[in-house]
Amino acid sequence: MKESRTKESRVKESRASKPRMNKRGRIQMPSHKIILAVLIMAVFLSVPATVAFSITEEWPTYMGNQYLTGNNDGLLPSGLGQIWRFSSRGFLYNPVPINDRVYVVSTDKNLYCLDSKNGRVMWRFQADSPLTRMPVFFKGMLYLPAGRFLYCLDGKTGKLIWARRDPSYGFYGTPTIAENKIFYGNRKGFYARELRNGHLIWERDDIYTYGGFPTYWNGMVYTVSKEYGKERAVLYSLNANDGTTKWSFEIPNSPEIFSPLVYDGKLYLLASEGLFILNAETGEKIGIIKLEDSPASNPIYSYESIFIPIKNGKILRLNPKTENLEELFTASGPSSLAAAGSTLLIIDKMKRETILFDTINRKVINRIKIEEGAPTSLTLRGGVMFLTAGNKLYAFGKSYEKPPTEEKIGEIARKIPEKSKKVEEKEPAQISGEIKSGGEQITQAKPEGKSQIQGVEEQIPKKTITGKVKDKRTGKPLSGKVEAHTELESGQIESISKEFREGEFKIEIPEKGKTDIIVSAPGYTFKTITLPDEKAIDDLSTEPLELSLEPVYQEQKIVTHSIHFKSDSANLEPLAIKTLEKILTLMKTNPELKIEIIGHTDSTGPEDYNQRLSELRARVVADWLIRNGINSKRIKAIGKGESEPIADNSTPEGRAKNRRTEIRIIP
């Protein structure tokens, strides 16, 4: 077994680079290190931010999650009107939409941070080489692979935090973040570094990565090793803590590298011979499914299916439970995929179009034709699709009332000094300064008209809701937070949250629309109240709510009606996301917590249909949590169909109560 080179083996190197203190207690760097620190700085241009910044969302791996869907919230595209278009001097690739921003890389050597609502440039960072690899985002920091460098940037401001240079041929894939480490490989080895400062934790000089990207699951990092120019490849499962090999699997005759996908404890790996299925824990081969042609791009998982694009243009669907493989759709040639719920998004480069395909009804929903260049990559967030084609990035969603805006970038006026080839690592203190770009201009285009996704301009009549919150066991008044999320008649979501003390709250909500009220307190589970219409809101405003919260304990059950699905479907509604975020927060703040998700329906329709629908809805909730960072071993999903009603199914009110999701805390 090959052992990794660990942190301890690099003590001598770390001491040699440690800065000295002068008589005034300030860091005194040797003159040659000051010069080198300047050499690795990147040109940075700041544009004032226009939106509030949140660090609740993450994008820790290629395409955002271990299922490679390019979409973490599961929301279907809300429309196909062009909202805005952004242009740069170079080709654009791999947009990362997160926290109301879009980060996109360009062959003009720039990483652009755009406002996702209007495409305006908020800041940009210039590296020393053309950029094509997707960056990753974790806890407010953006990690950018660029040539031989790995940069860590503040996601809000673009400020350079640290940079690391490896003695290699550069990056050949997107890094992966897990366990407060960042994992990546190149032709010279495979590495794990600390997130906060980029210090090397361990390395493997016998693993060569010139394609694909690492995958993380349950304490293990999976990566494919292949020597340049050779057909033989090996899939390694490495201990994320120290880099030692847990198991390996040889892949014969594999000219191309694809990254593994992990679902339900099984690992799926595409190779020339077909789709290998392995036990993700042990590496034991479960089987291989032969394909009629070579793979075209990585597989993705969504809606209880694994989708596989092959080079003859066919999109195949694998049922992971039965291992049944079927042909789903045929594009004009090799394609790449993204997914949101049951909708598959297919990039057909030969026809220069993106196809939205309904995988349930097996039909094309729509096509987006790009005349100015072939589409190359796409991702989604909040029902908006971000698509790169040539030197442009498009945002498609609900249309503007007037023509969409376009943002253009002028010629870059400043070059970066060439970096020294002798530099391997730089400390954060050495590179904390910024170089402001001189003479460079960015043309800001003002929106024409008002976007439906940018907020409501007119005043909306409000109702005041009051309430009292106490500990269910002791009756003690609690302090916490109350949130109200309203889906307006326009389809927009209006949100407000307030802290409350001594067990009493007051909050104003729109008097029209569907509203979810969520009440929570530190150390307790949460409660949701769904107000489906104006009458329910009016009734609740006449007298205070009285709520009791319970501390987190085993066998506790949380019943919610606020995980909303589209009618007769397991596709999520936008209003469901806030409740899902509460469950996510509960599990992240209680890392030992395990839950069972139970889906229920009313009695409308055939019993077997309702049973299947409840199972699928529970699975969709589980998959949402997994995509957003929860270990799949902590979640169980089951469906009960119409078998356990809590109200009379003969009335609309009773049926609404029976359509629910239960979260049970399990041992």
What does this structure look like?
With 667 residues, this protein is mainly β. It has three domains: 5-50 and 60-429, YVTN repeat-like/Quinoprotein amine dehydrogenase (Methylamine Dehydrogenase, Chain H), CATH 2.130.10.10; 456-551, Immunoglobulins (Immunoglobulin-like), CATH 2.60.40; 552-667, OmpA-like domain (60s Ribosomal Protein L30, Chain: A), CATH 3.30.1330.60. It contains six helices and 51 strands. A six-stranded mixed beta sheet has the order 6-7-8-9-4-39, with no helix packed on it. A six-stranded mixed beta sheet has the order 34-35-36-5-37-40, with no helix packed on it. The longest helix is centred in the last third of the chain and has 21 residues, at 607-627. The radius of gyration is 26 Å and the shape is globular.
Short synopsis of the structure:
This protein has 667 residues and is mainly β.
Rounded to the nearest angstrom, the radius of gyration is: 26 Å
Helix content: under 10%
CATH A-level architecture of the largest domain:
7 Propeller
Backbone structural class: mainly beta
Counting DSSP H or I runs of 4 or more residues, the number of helices is 6
